[in-house]
Amino acid sequence: MKSHVKILATGGTIAGITRTPARSGYHAGQMGIQDMIDTVPDLKSLGDISGEQIANVGSQDMTFEILIRLTCRINDLMKQDDIHGIVVTHGTDTMEETAYFLNLSVNSPKPVVLTGAMRPADAISADGPLNLFNAVAVAADPNARERGVLVVMNDRIHGAHSLTKTNTTSVETFLSPVNGLVGTVNYGKTAYFRFPFRRHTYLSEFSSRFCQPPHPLLPRVDIIYACIDMPPDLIDFSLAGGAKGIVIAGDGNGNMNQATIKNAGQKAASGTCIVRSSRVPTGTVSRNVEMNDDTLGFIVSDELNPAKARILLMLGLSNKYSQDQIQQLFYSY
Ligand code: GLU
Description:
- The chain is of the alpha/beta class.
- The chain folds into two domains: 4-203, L-asparaginase, N-terminal domain (Rossmann fold, 3-Layer(aba) Sandwich), CATH 3.40.50; 221-332, Rossmann fold.
- Helices cover 27% and strands 20% of the residues.
- The chain contains nine helices and 14 strands.
- The chain has helices at residues 33-38, 64-78, 95-105, 128-139, 234-240, 258-269, 293-296, 306-318, 323-332; strands spanning 4-11, 48-57, 85-89, 112-115, 150-153, 156-159, 164-165, 174-175, 183-186, 189-192, 221-225, 245-250, 273-278, 299-300.
- It has an eight-stranded mixed β-sheet. It has a four-stranded parallel β-sheet with strand order 11-12-13-14, with helices on both faces.
- Strand 9 and strand 10 form a beta hairpin.
- Helix 3 packs parallel to helix 8 (306-318) and helix 8 (306-318) packs across helix 9 (323-332).
- Glutamic acid binds next to loops.
- Residues 12-13, 28, 58-60, 91-93, 116, 118 line the site of glutamic acid.
């Protein structure tokens, strides 16, 4: 049977237009999905390809409203036997957050593959067309099933849990620094090295009822960036503004100064979830290294960077989990 891959477009540089191909200025999210498909005629060699426009934004303007619509559309489409996989086109700025959100909320073992571009569609050496071709090839590939949500960029296949954007302009921007690649894809030819070892998609406790009423209410969670002499009352401003949980983008192994530890510890003791993550781009954050998380009541993010830790904390809080249960989430997802 011919593979049927649906491409859901959300915008980003892959749909961006510069009109000055050798300069850096451009607008993301200008081209529609059909034009993107038409610029890569070879997609037809991979199967039946159809597209749908979900949004057309630079990914710095992605919202949870769009993400929930996207998840629920994916979950509906995946129920159809004739859909083999889904590609989501997306800006690269927040691609890792969307990939991780979908990794927790999509309820299917079929491939979901995000892709994008670092160069606009009409730039010199635009990278979007080949990224789209490779992403569709992975989505059409039965061997990509049960690997969670994947990101295909620059011939690499990344897992949603591990990848992070590391360069503001280079086409080689995404790395999976702690756990490595899921695989590679070269002009549509795939190779796989591993299955992601954390719970995801159809095995996630969040995905089975995510798109059924009552829809989960995602509470506000703020990220606070640690630095020399950081003001401890940033936490108070966040909580006063309605945050129900806090992620600290800590220095080093999730550290913060003594004044912030004291304030955060008081908030944790009165029930606020305080997650220690790190502003360092690679490595894990562990419990009880330079402070006693057991007595202070803090949660550590393990491998998740602050942006992904925020998403997991939002979902954990929406399920009304305790601090201990939320700590366990960070070891499971
Ligand atoms: N800021 C834009 C976005 O994330 C451009 C980055 C990109 O797509 O490469 O949509």
